[in-house]
Amino acid sequence: MTVTVRVDTVGTVRIGPPPEVWPFHAPMGLAGGTVVIDPFAPDAPPYAELDGPAEAADWLEAVYGPGTRAVVRATVAAARAGSVAAHDRVDATVRSAAVPWSPGPGHESLVRLAMTRWLGDWSPDGLDPVLLDLEAGGLLWDLDGVVPGAVALARKCLTRSADPLLELAERLRHWTPEQVSDGLVAEAVLDSVLAAACLLEGHRHHPRLLALAREEASVRASGARLSGPESRVPALARVETAAQDSAEGTSSVDWEQVPARVLDAADNTVRWRTVRGTADGDLLQVTVRAAPRAVRVEGLGFRAYHPRLPLPVALGRLHRPAEPGDPTLRGEAVLSPLMRALDAAGLVVDVFDAAMVSPPRTGRAALRAVRRRRAVRQLTSLRRRWATRDAAGMSRWVPAAARTAGDLDESAARRGPDPLATRMWNLVSAAAVTARSLGAPDVPVPERAEGRERAGDPAGPPRVPWLRDPTWRPTVAEWLAVRPDFGLTAR
C-alpha cells in the first residue's frame, strides 16, 4: 500500500486520504502540522496536513515509516522550483508523489492516544475520564519527541489517575495470557506504571509504583512476559404528553452545535417540560447533562421550535449547577403566546453554544445528524463486542450496522457519496469476516445499493479494516466497562 504526498499552491503538504468532517475524525496536533486518525479505521494510513514540513521532519518517519521524510522534502523542493500555474483545479495540488505505507515505531501509540481522546470526547458510553487519563499518560510518555509537551501532559494525566493505576497494577502483578483475557490492555496499564515511576516523583504513591515498575521491567527483560492473545434538531424527540396544556420530552445534543467535552455525548440527555406560567405565556423548563469534568459550561443556551412555526417559540440560557458536583445544567424561558393554540407535544428543543452560532438543522438535515450519531454508537458497540470476542454479538451487529449505513446513503442521496456511509459499509464487511473467524456461522452481508460507490467518493476505494490490528485494541476504560474484573481468571 502507498500513500500520496501532495503539495498545494501555498506550500501546504498533505499526506494520505482526506479525513471525515468533525467530529468524525480524531486529530492530533504535532510540531509543524496535524495528524488525523479515522476512528472507523484506525489501522488505515492517517491523514496529515503540514504547514511547517521542516518542523514535522522529526516525527514523519516515526508515524509513516522510513523514506517518508525524504519524499516530502523532494516533493516540496519540486513544488518550489516549478510554477503554481499548472495545478489541480480541485485541490490546488502542484506536485505529488507516492510513498510506501509502512507504519513507523510511533504510529501505534499515536493512534491509540488519538482514539483515547476521541472516545473521551464523543463516545456515548460514558467512559470513565480517569481511566482514559491513565492510559493516555503512558502513551504520551512513549510519544516524547512526537507530541509537543508530551512529558508534561503525561505527568498531569498520571497524577489525576494515580489511585486507580496503583490499584490495577497490584491486581495485574503476575498476569499471564491465561489469566487475563486481553493481555494487550494489561500491558497498557503496566506501561503507565513505568511512566508513573519516572514522572511522579514526590507523589504519595510513587514509592510503590516505582517498586512495581522495577518488578515489571525485570519481568520484561527476562522475556517471561508474553504478549496477550492478540497482539432542525439533533434527535427525534420521544415525547410523553401529560395533558393537552402540558408536555414533556427528551432530545439529544447536536454535536455540531457545541464544543467537545462540554455536554454529555450520550443520547436523550436533554429533558424539557412545559408548565403553567404568566399572562405572557407558559414556561419551558430545560435540563441538560454536562460532560464529566466539563472544562466550561458558560455561554450555552437552548431554542425551542414547533413544526408549524418558522421561528423559535422560546429562547433561553442554561445555567451552571448550584451544587458542586451536580452535572445538570438548567434553564427556563417563556413560550411564545402562539403556542397556546398549538399542541406543546410537538416541541423540539435544540441546545447550542453562543460562540458557535449556527442555525439548527431541520427536516432531512436533522435526520442525517441522527443517523451520523447512530454510526458512532454502532462503532463503539462493535469495539465492545470485539474486545470481549463476542462472535454472536458481532453477527447480530452486522445487519443493524448495515441498516445504519444504508440510512446514511439515503440521507446523502442528493449530496453525492457519504464518506461516513462508506466507512460503515467497510466496517460491516470487517465485522462479518471477524465474526466468522471467531467461529460464528456465516453472516449474510447486505449489499450496498447500486450507484452509491462512485468515482470521487472522498473515502476512497473500499478498504476493509483489520480488527486484529493492535490499533483496534480496547482502551482500559472500555475494557473495564465490559469486564470490571479485568478478565482475570482463577489461578
Class of the largest domain in CATH? Mainly Beta
- What Rg do the Cα atoms give? 25 Å
In the predicted model, the low-confidence regions spanning at least 5 consecutive residues are: 226-244, 454-459
Number of strands: 14
Task: Report strand %.
Answer: 15-25%
Structural shape: globular
Question: Helices and strands, in N-to-C order?
Answer: EEEEEHHEHHHHHHEEEEEEEEHHHH
Count of helix runs: 12
Strand order of the largest sheet: 3-4-5-2-1-6
Average pLDDT score:
83
- Tell me which CATH architecture of the largest domain applies here: Sandwich
User: For the report, how would you describe the main beta sheet?
Assistant: 6 strands, antiparallel
Number of discrete domains: 4
Give a topology summary.
Blueprint: E1 2-8, E2 13-15, E3 26-30, E4 33-37, E5 47-50, H1 53-64, H2 68-81, E6 93-100, H3 107-122, H4 129-142, H5 150-160, H6 162-171, H7 183-199, H8 206-222, E7 238-243, E8 246-251, E9 270-278, E10 281-289, E11 300-305, E12 314-317, E13 328-334, E14 348-353, H9 363-387, H10 391-411, H11 419-437, H12 476-482
Antiparallel strand pairs: 1-2, 1-6, 2-5, 3-4, 4-5, 7-8, 8-9, 9-10, 10-13, 11-12, 11-14
